[in-house]
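Example protein was shown:

_____
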Amino acid sequence: QVQLTESGGGLVQAGGSLRLSCAASEHTFSTYVVGWFRQVPGEERKFVTAITPNGNVDYRDSVDGRFTVSRDDARNTAYLQMNFLKPEDTAVYFCAAVAGDRVRYAPVSYSYWGQGTQVTVSS
């Protein structure tokens, strides 16, 4: 059982930056695909980005060029650097993990989830 803990959310003005962290409890973290999702009330959880064990990444169009996903397997931690934030980026952000080697886009594809961290971007 992998436990994931997000941190780094908060309130930021439009144009600002935040870095989210996702810390895993397992040393086998290096064999997992890590995904980031976001959710606003009343809407489904949406794919933001993901990174595979060998570093392949993909992003949703609206964040491509502004967000960067990375991982430090020695620390069992993944990161989401968010720059040039916009009010429409406001959401609860979740990290998720699944064993494998390719990017997964659907929430149902992931086995483990963190509790989420709130990101609020003011205009």
User: Anything to note?
Assistant: The chain has a mean pLDDT of 97.
